[in-house]
Amino acid sequence: MKQLYTLAAILLCLEVVPASAKETGVAISGVFPHFNSSGLTSPSNGNVNTSTSRLIAKSHYVYDGSKLAAADSFSYIYSAGRGGNPDWEDANDDNVNFDTSVTYMFKYGYAYPSVRRMQTYNQQGLVASLWPQTWDGSNGDWENSKQYYYNYDNNYLLKTTMKMWFGGGWNNSLDYNNSYIYSPFRLLAMLNAPGYRRFFDYDANGNLVMSYDQTIQITGASQDNELDSFYYDSVTRLSAKTTQVHDSTTGGWMFSEHWDYDYTGTDSDVQSAYKLVWVNNAWAQSEYHIYTYDANHNMLSDLAKKWNGSVYVNASLTEWTYNTYSQPLTIVSRSWDGTAWNFATNDFTRNFYYENFVPTGIANLDKTPMFLNLYPSPATDVLNFGMNWEQPQQFNVAIYDMQGHVMKSWSENAVKTYNKQVALDGFNAGNYIVKMVAANGQQTTKMFTVNR
């Protein structure tokens, strides 16, 4: 379930991530990356993953009117025991503790590199810096644009600094800073950014009850933008949210939209949600959502209905699948065509790929009986395999593109140590998945990238 707020993009160079009233709580995003927590008490910079499974790639396809066309794909490389889980409610990857991530965009059926992001961490495992670079096709190399630095106090984010690349170097005079102020109970009270502020207020139980934002003019005067009010039931479940927008003419607040959330018994999962919009000084029906979950409280479906003036009619259906670690495998969005659920323009699918690993802090834990190394990374013309089994055994190898098509596949006789070089003829630039399956059922997957 996701209802997006609107955070004002007060500076074009600042990246604004929408916040959301999530089914699992309320998350407020900041103006910079890595301020996107599952709750306001502890801004998170990475999700400590103890499941021994971590995200290595994801791909996104959008229906263009005739087919699902590849839109973009992401790859992730980690060091040591880092990992991370994608959020089924949130498309960004602030909760993935990668060292390097590469984004490929697709156009006319071809993939091309777009953004490379590199991260460093402090001793507590929180992100200390984020360094995104953009691909310069004319020079065939990565170019600097900005860097982010994160400062903490007792693991609470206090300040974020964005440095800009200008004139061949990092220009300190162009720094932009976010600061974060907390209440005595370590709840976020204010986010302060260049030209922008957001305030937060809580009840005695620490539940967010109000949030509003302001744009700061060059003169120093503040302009109110949007106010969100949150309401809870007797067991502190989010029961309603009302959004108001500032009326610059009257100086007051005008209603904009309202959500009501329904539950079954004492279950914490939202079963349905109603959206009302403010029209002609009255609330009017707008949307109705029905949600389903699995036994682990993972959302399986979001059925959205629209009000047509007399009844709610089917509009869209989003469905999720998960692996045994409750990590999303697929997200599929379809639209109602009057008789059935089919893909319509801008519907999408997202695919997620994982590998097993040994998380930091878990000793003597190894659920990956094969150890696979792929190099060079990124690859160009050839890919080298280096792999060791615990015991010699036969196995099959397959290389998939991000659409699930098999690019190459072969079988190998029983060996304990395996080395092989594979030609990448016919491989366009992009991300690919290697899957190895042994005769005894053991398997592993790993992602690699091809640059052309």
UniProtKB/TrEMBL annotation:
It comes from Taibaiella soli. Residues 1-21 form the signal peptide. Keywords: Signal. Residues 374-447 form the Secretion system C-terminal sorting domain. The keyword Signal applies. This is Secretion system C-terminal sorting domain-containing protein. The keyword Signal applies. The lineage of its organism: Bacteria, Pseudomonadati, Bacteroidota, Chitinophagia, Chitinophagales.
